[in-house]
From TrEMBL:
Signal peptide: 1-28
Entry keywords, A to Z: Signal
Domain Phospholipase D N-terminal: 37-125
Organism: Alterirhizorhabdus solaris
Coiled-coil residue windows: none
PROSITE patterns, sorted: TAT
Xref: CDD domains: MPP_PhoD (cd07389)
Domain called PhoD-like phosphatase metallophosphatase: residue spans: 137-508
Name of the protein in its database record: Alkaline phosphatase
PANTHER family in the cross-refs: ALKALINE PHOSPHATASE FAMILY PROTEIN (AFU_ORTHOLOGUE AFUA_5G03860), PHOSPHATASE, PUTATIVE (AFU_ORTHOLOGUE AFUA_6G08710)-RELATED
Length: 538
C-alpha cells in the first residue's frame, strides 16, 4: 500500500473484519504422490520455453520425460527432453525446451516412468520479424486469505492473451490472523506461522499453487514473473525488511536465501536476476530486479518528521538531503548500466520499450483536503497517515517512499536513459493494490507513460482509509499529482496491455467481488498512448 514508510503491521488491521463466513472453495487434490501441482510455463523466447511441474515419487529422484507438440493429442512431438524431480528441490522440475518455431502455440506435458501423465499445458514462443499485435495479461498482489483469485480465472478463460506477466507479491509471508485478521472461509494458508525458513516458504507456495484459478492461468499461458517484497518479507531491501526481526527470526541473509530458493523452485522462472524478451519488431520487454540484490534501504520519512515542533523545517531538510541522495538505488550500478545499454539497442530495433517491474514510478501527492475523505470515526492511524502525507505534499514530497517516489535520483536516471535513447517507454507496475495511469516526465519533458495494475485480492485505499468515497479519493489524488491522469482505488482484478505497431493500450478489468467465486466484470477503464507521443492520448 502507498504509505509513508510506516510499519504495516499496525495499519493492516483496518481491513478484513467480518468476511469469514463465506462458502469454502474446492481446491482439488494437490497433495500426495504423482503430479501434485499441475504444470506451468514461462520466460519464452522465439525458439524456447521453460516448462515446470512437481512430481512426488515413492522413493528417490524421478526422471520425467517432457513432450512439446503443436497438436493437443501429441501425435507429433516437436521437442522435449528429460528432467529429474527430487526432494532436494522440493520435488519440482523445470526444463528449457529449445529448437521450437517462433510465434507458435504449443501443448506440453510431463510423463513419469510408470506412464502417469501430467495435465496438458498450453504455451507459446515469441514472434520474430514484423509483428502486428501482442497482448499481455498483467497481475500482482494476490493474497489468498483475502479472497478468491477470480482475476486469474477470468484471464485463463480468455482466448486473446499471449503472455501473462506477474509483477510480484505472488504470495504473502504473514502468519494467519495478521493480514487479514480473518480469512475468507476456506482460504487459510499453510503454514499457520509466518514464512521465515525454507520449509515455510515451500509450504506457502504449495498452498497457493493448489488454487484452481491460479493453476488454470499457469496451464493456459506462459508467464514472465518477478518477485516483489512479500515473496520474502514486507518492504524488503538488500540488507533487511520492515517485516523481519533478526532478534527473533535470525539473519536476514538466511531468510532471503530461503525465499529466493523456494521462489526459483516453485515458479516457472530461470535463475537470472534480470532479463529482456524480444517480441518481434514490436517490443522489448525488460524484467528487472529491484528488491533483493542492490536496492538500498528506503528513506524513512516518518523518522524525518519525528516529534519535533518544526515539522516544515524537518521535511525540507529531508527533501533536500536524504530523499535526493544520488546513491539511493533500486537497480544498483550494474543493472542500471545494463538497462541503459539495452534500452538504446531496443529503441533502435523495436516500436516499444516496455519496463515491466514492481512499484509505481509516477509521482503521487496527498491533496490538502484529504482529511475530508475520512468518515466519522475513520481511525487515528488513518488520520495520522493523511496528515503526514498532506504535510509532505505541501513541499513537493510524495507519500510512498517504498516506490520509485522514494528514489528520485534513480528514477531520473532511468527516464533520462529512455529520453537519450529516443525510446517509446511504457512502464508497467504493480505493488500498490490500486489502478493508475501516469504521464512520466523528466525535468518537464515527456518521457513515457505508466500503466499501474491493481491487485488480484489485496485491499487498497478502500481498506486503509476506513470507507472513504473512492471517487473522492481518486479525484483528490489526480488533482494533487500532475503526472497522475486517472486512478481507481477500491476494486480488484487485473490489467491487459495490447501492443500494436502504432499504439499501446491498457485496459483495467474490475471483478465484482473477491469474497466468492465470480467471473463477472463490474467495471472497465481504458487508456493508451500513441507511438511517439510519450504521454497518454486516450
Amino acid at each position: 500500500m502507498p504509505m509513508i514508510s510506516l510499519p504495516r503491521r499496525g495499519f493492516l488491521g483496518l481491513a478484513s473484519a467480518g468476511i469469514a463466513t463465506l462458502a469454502a472453495p474446492s481446491h482439488g487434490a494437490g497433495l500426495g504422490l504423482g503430479f501434485t501441482h499441475d504444470v506451468a510455463s514461462g520466460e519464452p523466447s522465439a525458439t524456447s520455453v521453460l516448462v515446470w511441474t512437481r512430481y512426488v515419487g515413492r522413493s528417490g529422484p524421478v526422471r520425467l520425460t517432457v513432450e512439446v507438440s503443436e497438436l493437443p493429442d501429441f501425435a507429433r512431438v516437436a521437442g522435449g527432453g528429460t528432467v529429474a524431480a527430487s526432494a532436494e528441490r522440493d520435488h519440482t522440475a523445470k526444463l528449457v525446451v529449445d529448437g521450437l518455431t517462433p510465434g507458435r502455440w504449443y501443448f506440453y506435458r510431463f510423463v513419469a516412468p510408470d506412464g502417469n501423465v501430467s495435465p496438458t499445458g498450453r504455451t507459446r514462443t515469441l514472434p520474430v520479424g514484423e509483428t502486428a499485435q501482442f497482448n499481455l495479461g498483467i497481475f500482482s498482489c494476490s493474497n489468498l486469505p483475502f479472497g478468491f483469485f477470480n482475476a486469474y480465472g477470468h484471464a485463463a478463460a480468455r482466448d486473446d492473451l499471449d503472455l501473462a506477466l506477474h509483477l510480484g507479491d505472488y504470495l504473502y509471508e504473514y502468519r494467519r490472523g495478521t493480514y487479514p485478521l480473518a480469512a475468507v472461509a476456506g482460504r487459510q494458508v499453510e503454514p499457520a506461522s509466518e514464512t521465515v525458513h525454507l520449509a515455510d516458504y515451500r509450504a506457502r507456495y504449495a498452498a497457493y499453487r493448489r488454487d484452481p484459478d491460479l493453476r488454470a492461468l499457469h496451464r493456459r499461458l506462459p508467464m514472465i514473473a518477478m518477485w516483489d517484497d512479500h515473496e520474502s518479507a514486507n518492504d524488503s531491501w538488500e540488507g533487511g525488511a520492515e517485516n523481519h526481526d533478526p532478534a527473533t527470526e535470525g539473519p536476514w541473509q538466511a531468510r532471503k536465501a530461503a525465499a529466493v530458493r523456494a521462489y526459483r523452485e516453485w515458479m516457472p522462472v530461470s535463475d537470472s536476476d534480470w532479463a529482456e524478451y524480444r517480441i518481434g519488431d514490436l517490443a522489448v520487454l525488460f524484467r528487472p530486479e529491484e528488491r533483493l540484490d542492490a536496492r538500498t534501504r528506503q528513506v524513512d520519512l516518518a523518522a524525518a518528521i519525528g516529534n519535533g515542533a518544526d515539522l516544515a523545517a524537518a521535511l525540507k531538510t529531508f527533501r533536500d538531503g536524504p530523499w535526493q541522495d544520488p546513491a539511493h538505488t533500486l537497480f544498483g550500478p550494474a543493472q542500471e548500466r545494463w538497462f541503459a545499454d539495452r534500452m538504446r539497442a531496443a529503441a533502435r530495433e523495436t516500436r516499444w520499450q516496455v519496463l515491466a517491474q514492481q512499484v509505481n514510478m509516477g509521482i503521487t501527492h496527498m491533496p490538502p483536503a484529504a482529511l475530508d475523505w475520512l468518515p466519522p470515526g475513520g481511525g487515528d492511524r488513518a488520520r495520522d497517515f493523511i496528515r503526514a502525507g498532506i504535510a509532505a505534499g505541501a513541499i513537493g514530497l510524495p507519500f510512498n517512499m517504498d516506490s520509485w517516489n522514494g528514489y528520485p535520483a534513480a528514477r531520473s536516471r532511468v527516464l533520462r536513459n529512455g529520453l537519450d535513447a529516443d525510446a517509446n517507454l511504457v512502464v508497467l507496475s504493480g505493488d500498490s493494490h490500486n489502478a493508475w495511469a501516469f504521464d512520466l516526465a523528466e525535468q518537464g519533458v515527456a518521457a513515457g507513460v505508466e500503466f499501474g495494475g491493481h491487485s488480484v485480492t489485496s485491499p487498497g485505499f478502500e481498506a486503509e482509509l476506513g470507507g472513504a468515497d473512492p471517487l473522492a479519493v481518486a479525484r483528490g489524488l489526480v488533482g494533487a499529482s500532475p503526472e497522475l491522469k486517472w486512478a481507481e482505488t477500491s476494486r480488484r482484478g487485473y490489467m491487459t496491455v495490447r501492443l500494436t505497431q502504432d499504439r499501446a493500450d491498457a485496459e483495467w478489468l474490475f471483478l465484482d467481488t473477491v469474497l466468492k467465486p465470480s467471473r463477472t466484470i463490474a467495471a472497465r477503464h481504458a487508456a493508451g498512448v500513441a507511438r511517439g507521443a510519450r504521454r497518454l492520448t486516450s
